[in-house]
């Protein structure tokens, strides 16, 4: 069996793929300097409750996810370039605004705008991998590397922020805006020197309405979508909801603990992702996903029963969560890539972006449960939901898919 990790496969990566890979690294690095501290800023500067913070983050994220679904289809019909360029331009505007917003209305408006670039960028950039790389193993390596570099950026970002004294300061959002400027320049230059016709017009006959009808009949994809949505909902309880819980519990050295959690999360993925890939290389994709879900469930139980003042308990839970994440998220993307028809990868990855609704509604649902029942109950519920996701994946084996060969996808 051909190995996924191979220098020969890396040599087949085009310049455009490397721009996407490195662009994600720099964007995510600057993003993680301050973005995870939004809940802290909204609580300390504007005195918002956990539910209010959740409503704000959820409302803006839901809109961006729905927009990402539509723009994934647009990238199939009109090409990847205009959508990704728009994402970079909006990123420049949004994070510049976020750096200087001084009123609650202005700050909330900037948050709303800042959620858009990621959803605009995600589906077209992943679809480019299918355009440029025809070998499934090449695409798997590219998706694994993409996730690795994203987390490498997330690991380095907080360290730079702490070293520069920028962590939690609004002005540091300007660094993310500058990173988007660099990404925009690299995109324009690379696309100008790219002659791949796949980047132009791919599936003009399949407009958004036709894609909706097609997806309605793809029951396997829809059930996987629901399962992935729940996985992101569970995972986010160890992210935004955990930070809100620790903030309101007045944990000693809160900023240091949050920074340690973020660094632990990213460093574990950076260190373990490729060893885990090599270890699990001959295990079927869905079996890998089941293993990742088990780690996710255990991490939530650790968070539920850890004493608020036990610093290392939070890091142990984060370590387990991060192992699960390293297994889950990259393999979920590989699984979705294999489910997506070649000519409709943008549309399918755009639809797969709806999974992020789980992440988007997590701050709201988590905030409500935190306000009513507290953190331990929240994390026990999240752990229980993990069982549901495994059942959904198993049920998807019994369903049928449309006959893509009979469809006119050109």
From TrEMBL:
Keywords: Cell membrane, Membrane, Transmembrane, Transmembrane helix, Transport. The lineage of its organism: Bacteria, Pseudomonadati, Pseudomonadota, Gammaproteobacteria, Alteromonadales. It is a multi-pass membrane protein. It holds the Pfam family MFS_1. One of its GO terms (cellular component) is plasma membrane. Residues 16-401 form the Major facilitator superfamily (MFS) profile domain. The chain crosses the membrane at residues 16-41, 53-70, 82-98, 104-121, 141-166, 172-191, 220-237, 257-277, 289-305, 311-334, 346-366, 372-393. Its main location: membrane. It is found in: Cell membrane. This is Na+/melibiose symporter. GO terms for molecular function: transmembrane transporter activity. It comes from Pseudoalteromonas denitrificans DSM 6059.
């Amino acid at each position: 069996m051909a190995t996924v990790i191979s220098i020969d496969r890396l040599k087949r990566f085009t310049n455009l793929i490397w721009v996407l890979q490195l662009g994600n690294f720099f964007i995510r690095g600057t993003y993680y300097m301050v973005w995870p501290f939004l809940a802290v800023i909204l609580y300390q500067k504007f005195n918002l409750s956990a539910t209010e913070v959740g409503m704000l983050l959820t409302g803006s994220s839901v809109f961006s996810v729905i927009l990402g679904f539509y723009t994934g289809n647009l990238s199939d019909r009109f090409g990847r370039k205009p959508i990704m360029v728009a994402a970079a331009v909006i990123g420049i505007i949004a994070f510049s605004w976020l750096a200087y917003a001084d009123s609650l209305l202005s700050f909330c408006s900037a948050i709303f705008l800042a959620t858009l670039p990621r959803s605009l960028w995600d589906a077209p950039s992943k679809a480019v991998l299918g355009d440029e790389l025809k070998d499934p193993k090449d695409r798997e390596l590219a998706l694994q590397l993409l996730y690795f570099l994203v987390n490498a950026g997330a690991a380095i970002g907080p360290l730079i922020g702490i070293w520069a004294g920028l962590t939690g300061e609004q002005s540091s959002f300007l660094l993310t805006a500058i990173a988007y400027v660099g990404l925009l320049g690299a995109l324009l230059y690379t696309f100008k020197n790219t002659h791949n016709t796949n980047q132009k017009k791919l599936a003009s006959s399949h407009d958004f309405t036709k894609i909706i009808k097609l997806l309605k009949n793809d029951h396997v994809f829809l059930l996987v979508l629901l399962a992935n949505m729940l996985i992101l909902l569970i995972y986010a309880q160890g992210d935004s909801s955990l930070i809100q819980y620790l903030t309101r519990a007045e944990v000693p050295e809160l900023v240091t603990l949050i920074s340690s959690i973020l660094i632990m999360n990213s460093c574990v993925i950076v260190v373990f992702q490729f060893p885990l890939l090599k270890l699990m290389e001959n295990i079927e994709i869905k079996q890998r996903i089941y293993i990742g879900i088990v780690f996710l469930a255990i991490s939530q139980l650790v968070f539920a029963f850890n004493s608020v003042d036990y610093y290392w308990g939070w890091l142990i839970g984060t370590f387990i969560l991060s192992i699960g994440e390293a297994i889950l998220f990259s393999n979920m993307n590989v699984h979705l890539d294999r489910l997506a028809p070649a000519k409709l990868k943008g549309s399918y990855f755009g639809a797969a972006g709806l999974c992020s609704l789980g992440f988007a509604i997590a701050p709201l649902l988590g905030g409500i449960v935190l306000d009513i029942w507290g953190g331990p109950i929240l994390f026990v519920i999240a752990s229980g939901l993990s069982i549901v996701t495994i059942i959904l994946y198993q049920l998807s084996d019994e369903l049928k898919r449309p006959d893509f060969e009979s469809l006119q996808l050109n």
